Amino acid sequence: MDLADHRRLDALYRDPYPLYARARAADGLTFVPELDAWLVARDADVREVLRRPEDFSSANALRPDVRPCPAALAEFAKGLGGFRTVLSTDGEAHRTYRAPLNHGLSVARLNAVLSYATARAEVLVDAFAPRGQVELMGEYAEKLPGDVIGRVLGLTEEDARTAVHGSRRAEELLFRPLAEDEQVAAARDVVTLQILLDNYIRERRAHPQDDLISTMTAALVPGTGDLTRDQRAEMVSQFQNLLIAGHLTTTALIGSTVHHLLRDRAQWELLCAEPQRIPAAVEEAARFDTPIQGFRRLTTRTVTLAGTELPAGTAVFVAYGSANRDPARHPDPDAFDVTRTAPAKHLGFGHGVHGCPGSHLGKAQLRLTLELFTRRLPEMRLGRAADQQVVVRPTLIHRSPQALHLTFPAEKPEEA
């Protein structure tokens, strides 16, 4: 893909909603050259694909937009990984990966980490509240989910930050056009992450603890003996994927939600006055500007969807973000409205066998964030000149503002 192709792709990624609207109104499916896939845009069609994993395989779910250069691939060869994950498998393989993940991310276990998340969120706000301003993405939205997923996995806080950096670099390397030297640097960061995870996996193999690395390792490679290199690489792949899904999605959700609330002052002030509406606001935010806009699927046989015949091996892009703006399911879908009564179920966290197993934790972090901000920073506003448009990251995964500058009356330190 050349630079001009990436510019066209960036434009689509920054605002895909006009394309979605045209595709929903069209007969059949719409082929999108920039995605090299047929766009599945209507809510009913998206749900049909997600209900039929035997016909629409997830094998290409994580197909990158960019193929790393040979020098970056040479760096990758020094690490571990490259195995399929729960996101890119079907059938028995998917069930094998999914079962211990569901157990490890149970509501009971995730609730146990929420006290840590709440305390950590307070500490992060304490750091910027006295200044009266913050760049929310870098100083809060990226930090809280990274620390929380590190806690769930069982990493130390220092190692969690290293892991979060490496997983972010993996996303950049595979979905952003980087110069060759930057690709090599990113690959080295990913290998550092893989080695860190491998060390944890082997240590937890010998000395299990109450964390997700211990739970999944024991389930997927039972026993007590030394792991083979392939087994270690398989486990590293699973946890590398979990890191990316576990923090980048929540980071995006926090940033987008705060942005949309502050753009519509009346809704922000309503939440401040009536915080009992926050759970509904969380669901509306996930519907309105879905962090994971969609995933690719690959047909396993000739199928017909929405009147369009798709031969075996055809790529489709299943657009959750479009389904969540479908007027056939959501009245006035292009309005962000936290007061919706009896809202229809959205696809902000997927649906069916590939539905997000960590959605409870992601939504809980957004909920506690809104509770904290409305209580401590009710006068929070968009900063850096109100007429400057917030720039959205050019991606259909982890869609969020690139930066979000906010201002508010500085908190005065409590008197001793």
Automatic annotation (TrEMBL):
Keywords: Heme, Iron, Metal-binding, Monooxygenase, Oxidoreductase. It holds the Pfam family p450. GO terms for molecular function: heme binding; iron ion binding; monooxygenase activity; oxidoreductase activity, acting on paired donors, with incorporation or reduction of molecular oxygen. The keyword Iron applies. It comes from the Bacteria. InterPro entries: Cyt_P450, Cyt_P450_CS, Cyt_P450_sf. Belongs to the cytochrome P450 family. This is Cytochrome P450. It comes from Streptomyces finlayi.
